[in-house]
């Protein structure tokens, strides 16, 4: 697989366990270059784990994770840190460095990875902050920002080194409608303007479907289905339909596994 | 609980301990060895020397002063019964240099700086700051851990020396200025009996060993903690308990070897 191949990330037969729990069981996912790919699924199905596997913060039990043709789990520590310079990740919490100002947070990757002059760093930081609309907030500290602003600063920091691959971990969780709209627009805009490839992990169906070119639905350690948002909306697979239509009951039952309701009520000696 | 499951629990605890020891060894190795790619590592070290060392000065100086004063007072009360209160300077100096200087500094350091290191690193882990640093392509072991380790290694022996100096001066304050021991005999008895290699240097060696152990435990507990509020609080407690016990245990071994 070469650098110019159609897929920037290629997960092949990934198996991953956490303790005795099987999170992924032979999963194949391919992320097309230059597109926004959504990875959706119910909470706790391992979506964030997937991003951490691609970023090699976790190692799979078996399978290959090719990013630009390099098998990420096999890289040494030094090579891995070099490979990560081409990836950007937006964490759910923003994960800004609390002892640094907004400006210094965005400047951090530039300072540690480049030999640019102070003037150049300033210009680049302002450029990135302008892209997320927070140029005026550069002197503030992270604890003076709202949740949505934190995420935008973290986004500016993640794109500071112009990565090829941007990963978003639940970018829409806990956002008010305005911040949500801003983030949705930004993800699409940055992807197209900077020629990125974006992976958006989310369970917010409407937002993700509105910006994604391609969707994967994962659950039960498997890929339940994949396709364009329209294809998935019209899918006749019951699991996909339940998720895409947001039906409370279906193949994923409303009730957690329990004994029969009537006999449970009648046997009072059991707690 | 059956006998077998008790044995299994014991085995599990043993395995956990050995695996934690292994992790902490690899952690130390990765943090300290290999080149640092970041040009500003000296600035990072300086910042930590301030946080870990300079900010611990107050507690070290105040404790050193009082411990020196108490030693002189207790020593004088005992020695005066034998008519040898002139030896109080010698007693204060030897006690501080050989034992109390390094040991009490290490215990105070574990409580003041060690717990702060653990909590800070643990909170950075819980708020995904360490993960995001990794994803930016910066190794937190080199950027966050290494400067804190070096700052501890460098500052604790210095703090221990300051502790001894202030303690000896506090002893003089009580013995000479208050209790009326002749100042010439306080200082000259001390000068005659304290050997540079046997006493001063051995004390410094102890301080260096304690600095290494306390700082290692503190940063490892922070880095290895469960990233929740209970996890951080448990890790902070563990730092103080493990560091204090290790210091006291090692002190016995070192004393047996040295003197």
From TrEMBL, chain A:
Task: List the molecular function annotations (GO) for this entry.
Answer: ATP binding
Is this entry keyworded ATP-binding?
A: yes
User: Entry's InterPro entries?
Assistant: AAA+_ATPase, ABC_transporter-like_ATP-bd, ABC_transporter-like_CS, P-loop_NTPase
Record Gene3D superfamilies: P-loop containing nucleotide triphosphate hydrolases (3.40.50.300)
Enumerate the spans annotated as ABC transporter domain.
9-245
Q: Which UniProt keywords apply?
A: ATP-binding, Nucleotide-binding, Transport
SMART domains reported for this sequence: AAA
| Signal peptide segment | none
Asked if the record carries the keyword Translocase, the reply is no
The cross-references to CDD domains, in alphabetical order and at most eight, read: ABC_Org_Solvent_Resistant
Q: Which PANTHER family match?
A: INTERMEMBRANE PHOSPHOLIPID TRANSPORT SYSTEM ATP-BINDING PROTEIN MLAF, PROTEIN TRIGALACTOSYLDIACYLGLYCEROL 3, CHLOROPLASTIC
Q: What is this protein called?
A: ATP-binding cassette domain-containing protein
Query: Could you tell me which species this protein originates from?
Result: Pseudomonas neustonica
């Amino acid at each position: 697989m070469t650098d110019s191949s159609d897929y920037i990330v290629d997960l092949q037969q990934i198996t991953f366990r956490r303790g005795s729990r099987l999170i992924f069981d032979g999963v194949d996912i391919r992320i097309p270059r230059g597109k926004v790919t959504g990875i959706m699924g119910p909470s706790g199905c391992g979506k964030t784990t997937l991003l951490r596997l691609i970023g090699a913060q976790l190692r799979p039990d078996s399978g290959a994770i090719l990013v630009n043709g390099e098998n990420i789990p096999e890289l040494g520590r030094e090579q891995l840190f070099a490979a990560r310079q081409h990836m950007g990740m937006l964490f759910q919490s923003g994960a800004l460095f609390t002892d640094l100002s907004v400006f210094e947070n965005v400047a951090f990757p530039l300072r540690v990875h480049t030999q640019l002059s102070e003037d150049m760093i300033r210009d680049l930081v302002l450029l990135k902050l302008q892209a997320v609309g927070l140029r005026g907030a550069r002197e503030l500290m992270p604890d003076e920002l709202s949740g949505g602003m934190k995420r935008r600063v973290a986004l500016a920091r993640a794109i500071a080194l112009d990565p090829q691959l941007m990963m978003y971990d639940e970018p829409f969780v806990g956002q008010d409608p305005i911040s949500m709209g801003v983030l949705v627009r930004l993800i699409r805009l940055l992807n197209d303007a900077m020629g990125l490839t974006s992976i958006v992990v989310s369970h917010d169906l409407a937002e993700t479907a509105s910006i994604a070119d391609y969707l994967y639905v994962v659950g039960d350690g498997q890929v339940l289905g994949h396709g364009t948002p329209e294809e998935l909306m019209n899918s006749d697979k019951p699991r996909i339909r339940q998720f895409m239509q947001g039906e409370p009951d279906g193949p994923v039952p409303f009730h957690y596994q329990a004994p029969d309701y009537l006999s449970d009520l009648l046997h009072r000696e059991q707690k | 609980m059956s006998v077998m499951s008790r044995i299994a629990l014991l085995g599990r605890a043993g395995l956990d301990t050995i695996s934690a020891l292994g992790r902490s060894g690899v952690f130390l190795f990765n943090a300290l060895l290999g080149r640092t790619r970041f040009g500003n590592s000296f600035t990072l070290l300086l910042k930590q020397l301030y946080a870990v060392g300079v900010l611990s000065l107050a507690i070290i100086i105040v404790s050193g002063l009082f411990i020196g004063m108490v030693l002189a007072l207790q020593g004088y009360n005992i020695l005066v019964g034998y008519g040898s209160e002139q030896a109080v300077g010698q007693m204060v100096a030897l006690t501080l240099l050989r034992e109390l200087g390094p040991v009490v500094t290490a215990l105070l350091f574990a409580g003041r700086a060690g717990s702060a290191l653990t909590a800070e690193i643990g909170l950075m882990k819980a708020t995904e700051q360490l993960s995001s640093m990794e994803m930016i392509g910066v190794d937190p072991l080199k950027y966050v851990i290494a400067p804190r380790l070096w700052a501890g290694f460098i500052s604790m022996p210095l703090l221990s020396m300051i502790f001894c100096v202030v303690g000896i001066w506090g002893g003089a304050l009580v013995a000479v200025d208050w209790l009326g021991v002749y100042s010439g005999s306080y200082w000259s008895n001390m000068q005659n009996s304290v050997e540079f290699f046997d006493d001063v240097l051995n004390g410094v060696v102890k301080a260096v060993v304690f600095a290494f152990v306390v700082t290692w435990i503190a940063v490892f507990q922070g880095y290895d903690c469960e990233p929740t509020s209970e996890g951080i609080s448990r890790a902070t407690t563990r730092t103080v308990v493990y560091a204090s016990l290790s210091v006291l245990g090692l002190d016995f071994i070192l004393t047996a070897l040295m003197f």
